[in-house]
Amino acid sequence: MIYFTADMHFGHRAIITMQNRPFESVEEMNRVLLQNFNAVVQKDDTVYIIGDICHHMKIEDADNLIKKLNGKKYLVRGNHDKNYDPRLFEDIQDFMKISVYGNSFSLMHYPMLSWPKKGSGSYHLHGHIHARMEYNESNRSDGQRRYDVGVDANNYYPVSVKQIVDFFGKYKPDEFSISSNMLNMMDAAIDNLNEGKASGRVEF
Asked: How far is CA 52 from CA 94, 179, 202, in A?
């Protein structure tokens, strides 16, 4: 199975208060996030970590913690990531494009307004903004296949490729819904007719 996650911020005591995380201490947070990760990701699974594994940790401590994370790990660097031991990862990049079961995914730590094949149903997975699930639901409602895979938006667990595809598959836009752009075009055509002007054809 393929999984995604981001923004664990292992070692970052202040993130507990900043993001209202349900932990009493940084030690508890580190322990629970590690347990949650390994409860989902098995040793033969693949996991894409989309930035900010650790913060305010010595590099040797960060490397030792990463060694405890299950799976074949790929890192898409975030703004807090250090120069971890590259041998801990299959690959390290600032941006990745992958295809899974015929689905195209663009991976970057920072959220993007546009991404490759966006108009063809591709997905953009990111972190950085520490959103909640409401953000992902709002994107789905707007027809945007953009998803924050960070732990704050996913109950502090990694999320699988199947969960993401199913999440967006559950949303079926109203077949009679009309976009705001189409409404503007219709309004302009009506105004032209009212003024006796010739109107170009409006494609529906």
From this structure: 12, 37, 48
Residue with tokens 């590099």: 59
Instruction: Give yes or no for a contact between 147 and 167, defined as CB atoms under 8 angstroms apart.
Output: yes
CA distance readout (Å), 4 to 41, 156, 177, 201 = 10, 12, 32, 46
Bridge partners (DSSP) of residue 48 are 4, 74
Residue 62 amino acid letter: A
* pTM > 0.85: no
> Among all chains, which residue has been given the structure tokens 């490729």?
161
Residues with Cβ within 8 Å of residue 40, at least 6 apart in sequence: 3, 157, 158, 160
* pLDDT tens readout for residues 51-98: 999 999 999 999 999 999 999 999 999 999 989 999 999 999 999 999
Q: Which of 110, 6, 10 is nearest to 55 (CA)?
A: 10
160 backbone dihedrals φ, ψ, rounded to 5°: -85, 160
CB-based contacts of 43: which residues, under 8 Å, 6+ apart? Answer: 70, 71
Report d(CA 189, CA 186) in Å as an integer: 5
Amino acid identity of 7?
D
